[in-house]
Every structure is written in structure tokens, then in C-alpha cells.
Design goal:
The complex is a heterodimer of chains A (226) and B (567).
Chain A (H helix, E strand, L loop, with lengths): L9 H7 L22 H5 L15 H14 L9 H4 L1 H8 L8 H19 L8 H13 L9 H17 L11 H6 L41
Chain B lengths: L1 E3 L3 E6 L5 H10 L4 E4 L14 H6 L15 E3 L7 E2 L25 H4 L1 H9 L17 H16 L6 E2 L2 E2 L23 H12 L4 E3 L38 H7 L3 E4 L3 E7 L5 E8 L2 E12 L3 H10 L18 E4 L7 E4 L10 E8 L18 E7 L3 H5 L11 H11 L3 E3 L1 E4 L8 E9 L5 E6 L4 H20 L4 E4 L12 E3 L23 E3 L14 H17 L1 H5 L1
Parallel strand pairs in B: 1-12, 2-3, 2-12, 3-9, 4-20, 12-23
Antiparallel strand pairs in B: 4-5, 6-7, 8-15, 10-11, 11-12, 13-22, 14-17, 14-21, 15-16, 16-18, 19-20
Helix pairs in contact in B: 1-7, 1-12, 5-12
Classes of the chains: A mainly alpha (226), B alpha/beta (567).
Chain lengths: 226, 567
């Protein structure tokens, strides 16, 4: 806190850095009219998000995963979320490759998750209101949801971890579609040669919107395997 | 069937940071060298800026021999033994220098004389109970010419703080005298690093840019650093990171004296009835080879150095090679790298680019650079703040207890703060203790059936107090720079780490050390050991440059004393 600093005041430091009073710039899209509706209803609106063919999950698992991802990083007044990033598609694809070892944990996890939703809230997750969806996920996150092999918290952490990877990883792997994840946190993107200016306080490098594999410079990883 | 190969002068086991440097003075002296490396050659085409592959999925370390040999760990003999999912080091020509942070420090003078300096200043009772620490067999001045050689031969950028006794406050005023400046100026600063530097000066401290084996300008025909942000666990896409695979190894090959053998999985070092080593056995694709040699230099990583010695049993060495005094595996140390501090600023710090070696250090609280009179510990920590961040990790930031970890509120927090957080890197003195050691795991084996290394070690009061001091000072520094929240992270365990020391300690006394002051075994005259496994103190800074300087010195000693060693 400013009054606790010694020697150099925060105000001085900020002034020197040209940041005093600087406002945050975060790309903000207008609030979507679908945000208050149940996830199942919004999933049915193809104008927002186009779904890819499923590679590894069952159709029901894929729908549930889409809906969970959409609550972990919601589409809201602050713009697109995991749904637009296609995090679920990233996970579905990776479950046949780099995340192959997690396939069984997803299978048993989804089964337990579905049982828990029906027994505690009376319907499948995709049919619940967003409020009920959030309360289910809170149970699962805290480990208090019953019927899971081990703690439900482990299932939640796995899905959350992979949702972040699918939202903020390189689009090469099927997520972070249209770089919405990188734009969301203000990451200006890959630059193979970063300048002094790019590292100045207050600089706002233009987002590059490039994948590591857009150039021929690098040996391509198998997007299904790595 | 074992294929017996043609004898060579020297076989070097492992072409990483240490072995990859040692081959050059040997080859230049006209000595024939076979370098056995478990990994393969990688090139800049392999080093895509891909966080998912490199950092999340540990690609640099994947599908490597080391992954099959991850050591187990227990805090003491009564505790449960656990095994981490991955080994922090990789196999390749150049070893872990391919993906390391490249911070290339010299140790400070105190690190060589912990016992005598502590006794002189605070009395012998200040040395922690149960510690087996000894003075090194020599001081910094003995190692200085070898630090210099590696800095120039490989290429290290940095700002000198002490040239022949003349202190330069732009560099580390606590470093020992060096003979000349670094071959390259330091890596450039950033707006955020400038801010932290000003804050440290405001506190009356002495901040300076750290040394790195990374080109700050074109060096030896290779590019300057591009600061693209994927150096951490990634190789360099423009060959600006100066591992031996780009420097000493190709130069040694040019002499015609070095033969590099890749994908060679060494299983034992063999001896004759007189207790001299005769060569090395290795396996490639299931086929076994014996490479006879007049001298063996063991240069795998700290864990594997002890492991290979302990696995190499013979009539002359029933408890493992060079272990008739029971010293192999003893005096293990790591670096308490876990105990960092994370800060939250009320403004964007623009730290999306850079590299772990691009930053600012404070050494005021390391080693014996401050008066410990009022404290009940010895040693200290080096504080390091860097510009290094990638998007998946950024989105996974802690929320300082301010929001849940998902949902709209969390999303708003991360959008606002992803570029407002920074985690420091605090390296601290650790000491060797009677009860911290490496041996062979009685249960866990690699796919060839050989026991993996077992670590039995825990931090003691001294390490925990040093960690608390470093975190307290780092918190003060962040707050002085305007941080509105800080969080001290747990110290972690002494399980597998990139900064592992000991197991084959160097010293004059054969009762307490495996190798002599030149790095050769007290018990086996034609066996040398290279790497941080010979270091008797950890210092409060990255070990690689010291391991490389020691490796060069051992190789040069061998070249100059070839007849004595090989008689």
C-alpha cells in the first residue's frame, strides 16, 4: 500500500512509469441476451458457436462438458468465454491423444456427475438453470458431491485445468478459437522478436493472433497427440 | 551378447552442462574422447513457442531416459516414500541446458569457506547441529580462471560488480574479484524491472541485472536473444541460449578427437581386480556395449551420479564404486526454490514477454552479506524478479482469496489482473546434514530392472529460517514497488529438483568426501566425477556455471597429468 512504501512512493513510481490514472483496456463485448438463460437453450443457438464433430466423447458427455466449461469461464457482460474458445472441443480431441490417460476419469466422472445432478437437482446438468448449474459445480468443487470415485473435487479440478488449457493454449490444439482466450486476459500474442518498446510499462502491443505453427520455422507437434 | 568396442582415452558419461564442457579441453589436448549421451541432438526447429507442449505437458523432458528413473523421496527413514510424476532434467546433447533458465552465477567467496568464516565471525557454535558442512578444498580465487574460461567460451552476459577488487555498483557489489568484465553486457531491462530496480534502491539495497548464458548481442556468430517469452522449459529458436551443444561440443568435434554417441543408456562403470575402472557398459535399443577407456568421467546428473556408482558393485567395491568409505550419496542438498513470493499490483506491469534470466537481483540478504549477529542461522537468500509469463499459467493465477476460482467473478478478476501479478524466485543457502542422503530405492526399479535413486531429506531449522528471511525481504521489496497484496508460497520438499547437490562431495579428506580437490575419486584414481554432485555447499544461486567451471578444471587437470592419472 502506498502509505506503507519506504523511500519511493507508489505515486512516484507510477508517475515515472507513465501509468498514474491509466485505465485498464480489456476487450469488452456487449452483454449477450442469452446469458441468463439455461445453458441448454443457449447451446441450441448455432449463431453463437459452431460445434465440431465429436472425436472421443459420447454425445451426452460432450453436451455436459460444453455446459460445464461454459460455467467455469462463462460468456457474460465481459465477453466470450470457454464456449467461444471451444475448450470442450480441445478436451474432446486431447482425450484421444495427450490426455488419453484421463479418458476413464472423464467417463466415470461424467456418470457420477449425471447421477448427482438428477438425484440432487432433479434433472440432467444441461437442463438446469445457470443458478442450479453453479450450485452443483460448487458441490463438486468442494468435494461434497456424492457418488464419485474418490473426491468429486478431483473431477472438478481436472475439468477446470483442462478448460483453462483449452481456452488459453495455442489454437493449434483445437481450443482458444479466434484467440478469444488470449484476448480475454490481454495477452498480446506470439512475437518471435520482442522489442524494447514491447516491454515498456504502459505499452500495448497489438495482438498478433498467431499460432506457434503458423510459420514453417518449427517442427509441428501432432495436434491430436501432443 | 555384449559388444566390446575399441578402447578410447576417456569416456564421458553424459553430455550435459558439465560433461559437454569437459570434452573441449580434453579434445584440444589431443586426447580421444567418447561422449555417451542418453538423449539425441535437438535443433531450434524443435523449440516452438508452445506453452501447452513445453510447460504443461513437459515436452522437453518427455520420452527420455530420465523419465524412467525419477527418484523417490521420503523426508526421513520412517516417513512414506513418494515418487513425483516427472524428472526435472532432460536427456539430449547439451542436456538440460536446452531448456534451463541459463542463469550463470559465480558463487560468492563465502560459499567456499562457510565453516571457517562462520567460526571466525560468530563462533563455531553457530554452525547448525548435525550439519556435515566443510570448507571447500580451495577458495574462489582458484576457480576464477575457470569461471572466466566458461563465461567466454560459452558466452555469458552480465554486469561485473568487482573487477580485481574495484567495486562497480552497477553489478553485484558482493561478488568476489573477477579478472575482467563479462564478454557481453547484461540482457536488457524492462519497464517493470526498472520499477523494481528503483524500489530496491529506495530501500537502500543494491539491485543489479543477473548473469545469463544468453546472448545480449551477437556472439560467436550466433543471434542475440529475442525475449519472446518461451525460454522457460523451452529451447531457443535462434540459438541464443549458450548450452554446450552449440559451443564446446561442436568445437571439440572439430578437433576430430570427440566421438558423440547418442541414445546410450549407461548401466555400469566397470573395474578390474586392482580397483581401477576399465570402461563403461551401456545399452542402446536393447543391445549391450562395453566401451573400454583409460579414464572415465562420470557426468550424469546429481541423482544419477550417485546411482550409477552405487549400482556399479564389484569385488573391489562391494558397496558400490568409490564407496568403500560409505560417502557416496552423502551431503545431499537442494535449493528451497519453492519458497517464493507472489505479488499483486494495482496496475498492469506488461510482463508478457521476456525470459527468466531477464530481471533484477538483490544479493544483500544472501550468504554472509549482512550481519547475522542477531539471528540464529547462517546463510541467506538471493532475491530475483523477472519478466516471464505465459497465458495458461497467467489465467491459472491465484486470486489472493479475493474471488472463487471459476465463474463470472473469477473471469473478471483474471481479466483485470493477469498482467498485474509477478512471482519472484528466491534461492537460499541449504546445508548438508547427517540424515539427508541419496541411496538406491529397495523397491522401485527402471524398465531395465535397476533400482532408481532414493532421496531421504528434509529442510531443517536453518533452511526454514533462511526461507522466512528471504520471503520477508521480498515482500518488503514488492510493497515498496507498489504491490497491494503478496502471498508467501510454501518451501516445498527436497524431492527431485533442478538444483540438486552432493552425493560425490569434493574435499581433501577421503573419510568424508568421494572426490579429491581435482574431482578424481579418492579410491579409484582413473575415475573423475563432474557436476553439482561434487559441490559441498549450495550457495544461494544457480549451480550450472560452477559445475561447468569445476568440470573444465577437472578436465584440464587430467590433460596436464595424463601420465599420473593413467599409470
Amino acid at each position: 500500500m502506498a502509505d506503507e512504501t519506504k523511500g519511493v512512493s507508489r505515486r512516484d513510481l507510477l508517475k515515472r512509469a507513465g501509468l498514474a490514472g491509466a485505465a485498464l483496456t480489456i476487450p469488452v463485448t456487449p452483454a449477450s441476451p442469452e446469458q441468463a438463460r439455461p445453458a441448454a437453450a443457449s447451446a441450441a443457438q448455432p449463431a453463437a458457436v459452431k460445434r465440431e464433430p465429436i472425436e472421443n466423447l459420447t454425445a451426452a458427455e460432450a453436451d455436459t462438458l460444453e455446459a460445464i466449461c461454459a460455467r467455469i469461464i462463462p460468456t457474460d457482460a465481459n465477453g466470450p468465454g470457454a464456449r467461444e474458445a471451444r475448450a470442450a472441443h480441445f478436451i474432446d480431441r486431447a482425450l484421444g491423444g495427450a490426455l488419453k490417460e484421463s479418458r476413464e476419469a472423464y467417463r466415470t466422472g461424467f456418470a457420477a456427475f449425471d447421477r448427482y445432478c438428477r438425484s440432487s437437482r432433479g434433472d440432467a446438468f444441461v437442463n438446469l438453470s445457470t443458478r442450479d448449474q453453479d450450485s452443483v459445480l460448487m458441490d463438486v468443487e468442494s468435494g461434497s458431491a456424492t457418488g464419485f470415485t474418490g473426491s468429486s473435487a478431483a473431477f472438478f479440478n481436472m475439468v477446470r485445468t483442462h478448460t483453462l488449457q483449452g481456452t488459453f493454449g495455442d489454437p493449434y490444439y483445437g481450443g482458444n478459437a479466434n484467440f478469444v482466450g488470449w484476448d480475454l486476459i490481454g495477452y498480446p500474442g506470439l512475437r518471435l522478436n520482442v522489442t524494447t518498446e514491447d516491454q515498456r510499462l504502459g505499452a500495448k502491443p497489438t495482438p498478433t493472433h498467431k499460432s506457434a505453427y503458423d510459420t514453417a520455422m518449427f517442427t509441428k507437434a501432432d495436434s491430436h497427440d501432443h | 551378447m555384449t559388444t566390446r568396442l575399441k578402447e578410447t582415452d576417456v569416456v564421458v558419461v553424459g553430455l550435459g552442462a558439465a560433461g559437454g564442457v569437459a570434452v573441449l579441453p580434453l579434445a584440444q589436448a589431443g586426447i580421444d574422447v567418447v561422449g555417451l549421451e542418453a538423449g539425441t541432438w535437438l535443433t531450434k526447429k524443435d523449440f516452438a513457442p508452445d506453452e501447452l507442449r513445453n510447460n504443461v505437458r513437459d515436452w522437453p523432458m518427455a520420452v527420455q531416459k530420465a523419465q524412467q528413473e525419477v527418484p523417490t523421496h521420503r523426508v526421513n527413514p520412517k516417513a512414506n516414500t513418494t515418487r513425483a510424476g516427472s524428472h526435472p532434467m532432460m536427456n539430449a546433447v547439451g542436456g538440460t541446458t536446452l531448456h534451463y533458465w541459463a542463469q550463470s552465477w559465480r558463487l560468492n567467496p563465502w560459499d567456499f569457506k562457510v565453516v571457517s568464516e562462520t567460526t571466525k565471525r560468530y563462533g563455531a557454535s553457530r554452525l547448525p547441529k548435525g550439519s556435515t558442512v566443510e570448507d571447500w578444498p580451495f577458495g574462489l580465487e582458484e576457480l576464477e580462471p575457470y569461471y572466466d574460461k566458461v563465461e567466454y567460451e560459452c558466452g555469458v552476459s552480465g554486469q561485473a560488480g568487482n573487477i580485481k577488487g574495484a567495486i562497480d555498483s552497477r553489478g553485484n557489489i558482493f561478488e568476489g574479484p573477477r579478472n575482467r568484465a563479462y564478454p557481453m553486457p547484461p540482457l536488457r531491462s524492462t519497464g517493470f524491472i526498472d520499477l523494481m530496480t528503483s524500489a530496491a534502491r529506495g530501500l537502500g539495497w543494491h539491485p543489479f541485472p543477473g548473469p545469463a548464458a544468453i546472448n545480449s548481442r551477437t556472439y560467436q556468430g550466433r543471434s542475440a536473444c529475442m525475449y519472446h517469452g518461451f525460454c522457460n522449459k523451452g529451447g531457443c529458436h535462434v540459438d541464443a541460449k549458450n548450452g554446450p551443444h552449440l559451443t564446446t561440443i561442436p568445437r571439440a568435434q572439430e578437433t576430430g578427437r570427440l566421438k558423440v554417441v547418442t541414445r546410450a543408456h549407461v548401466t555400469s562403470i566397470d573395474t578390474d581386480a586392482n580397483g581401477r575402472v576399465t570402461g563403461v557398459t551401456y545399452v542402446t535399443d536393447g543391445q549391450e556395449f562395453f566401451q573400454p577407456a583409460k579414464v572415465v568421467l562420470l557426468a550424469s546428473y546429481t541423482y544419477e551420479n550417485s546411482r550409477i556408482l552405487l549400482l556399479s558393485k564389484s569385488k573391489a567395491f562391494p558397496n558400490g564404486l568409490s564407496n568403500n568409505h560409505g560417502q557416496v550419496g552423502r551431503h545431499y542438498m537442494s535449493h528451497a526454490q519453492g519458497g517464493s513470493v507472489t505479488a499483486l499490483f494495482p496496475f498492469n506491469i506488461n510482463a508478457w514477454y521476456g525470459l527468466p534470466a531477464q530481471g533484477v537481483a538483490v544479493d544483500n540478504f544472501a550468504d554472509d552479506n549482512f550481519d547475522h549477529g542477531a539471528h540464529d542461522y547462517i546463510g541467506g537468500g538471493n532475491l530475483w524478479v523477472m519478466s516471464d509469463r505465459r497465458p495458461i499459467a497467467a489465467a491459472g493465477m491465484g486470486t489472493f482469496g479475493r474471488t472463487p476460482s471459476w465463474g463470472s467473478e473469477w473471469k473478471a478478476f483474471v481479466m483485470r489482473n493477469a498482467d498485474r501479478t509477478n512471482t519472484s524466485y528466491l534461492q537460499k543457502t541449504t546445508l548438508p546434514y547427517e540424515d539427508n542422503f541419496l541411496d538406491l530405492d529397495p523397491v522401485v526399479k527402471d524398465p531395465l530392472g535397476f533400482a532408481v535413486c532414493r532421496i531421504t531429506a528434509d529442510y531443517r531449522d536453518n533452511e526454514r529460517r533462511v526461507s522466512a528471511l528471504a520471503q520477508e525481504k521480498m515482500t518488503e521489496w514488492y510493497k515498496a514497488a507498489g504491490a497491494i497484496a503478496t502471498q508467501s508460497n510454501p518451501i516445498g520438499t527436497m524431492g527431485p529438483t533442478t538444483h540438486a547437490y552432493g552425493g560425490t562431495r569434493m574435499g581433501r579428506n577421503p573419510e568424508t568426501n568421494v572426490v579429491n580437490e581435482w574431482g578424481f575419486s579418492h579410491e579409484v584414481p582413473n575415475l573423475g566425477v563432474l557436476g553439482a554432485s561434487v559441490m559441498g555447499t549450495s550457495g544461494a544461486r544457480n549451480p550450472t556455471l560452477t559445475a561447468q567451471a569445476l568440470a573444465w578444471r577437472t578436465a584440464e587437470y587430467l590433460a596436464k597429468n595424463w601420465r599420473t592419472v593413467t599409470v
